[in-house]
Each structure stands twice: as C-alpha cells, then as structure tokens.
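Please review the protein record below. Tell me whether the encoded fold seems credible here:
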Amino acid sequence: QLVESGGGSVQPGGSLRLSCAVSGFTFSAYGMAWFRQAPGKEREFVASINPSGVDANYADSVQGRFIISRDNTKKMVHLQMNDLKPEDTAVYYCRRGWTRWDYSGPGTQVTVSS
C-alpha cells in the first residue's frame, strides 16, 4: 500500500514537501518514484530513486527544483518541491519501481496559483 500526503495550494515560487508512506512489501528492496497527472494530460514521470537512495533520476522539467529522497527505516519516500510553477499543478502519485513501475497510491493534489 502506498499513501501520499503533503499536497495543497501554493503560490508560484513556493515550496511543498510530499510524502509517501509504504506498507505491504520490503521497501528497501525497491526503487520508488513520483509521477504526476495534470488535467487533460497523460500521467508523466517526475523523479525516481534507487533502493539504497544513492541514485536519483529527474524529469527535465523539474531538474534543479525538485529533490526525491527516502527513509528506509521509516518506509517513506519524499518529494521536496521548490520554486513551484503553475505548470506543476497536478495530482502527484507515488509508485513502486526504479526504471519500471507497478503499484501506485491514490495521489495528492498540488495546485500552484497566484
């Protein structure tokens, strides 16, 4: 089970930190990722992190603004989002996997608007 939290409304330039609580599988054995889906658009990759937390990948659109991290002792994965832009508005999903993904949480809404 994956459950996201931390979404909300923020002005452009602001920050949010998303969290995903994981249960039901051996968390430390899997990479984890964040995806997002904006209204009328397909779900897109945002960032992923490998099982140990040493390596991460980012979409070009968020590189330098977002940071993915994980805590294997607490079975949590986080997405620190800085310098948010209106185009970051979407439902954000936590997914299991490093380069291929399966399970997903229900999502958390992020709205960036002035």
In short: The chain is about 0% helix and 50% strand. The CA atoms of residues 95 and 101 lie 6 Å apart. The longest strand covers residues 90-97. The radius of gyration is 13 Å.
